[in-house]
What does this fold into?
Amino acid sequence: MIIAAMKRARTTLTVQEVAAMKDVDTRTVRGWIQRGLIEAEQINPRLWLIDADSANSFQPPIAGRPPKPKDAAEKSAAKKRVRKKDSTRLLKTLS
It folds into this structure.
């Protein structure tokens, strides 16, 4: 049993080790595990062991908001123009 645990320990990494390897926070690594982006085994409520091969080949997702499609950007600009016209009409009505 001890030999099996030692073999597993050599082929696995902790959340902290993967976070250091990928230069991210440990919460980010736990999020990847929860979303199924990286393979891991939960040993107890606080300890996850991550497959070393999976961690080495893993490419972190690009952070940030994806760009808006051109159609959505054009719709947004059109809405702003309409709002500006409506506010101008309201000001004229109130004057």
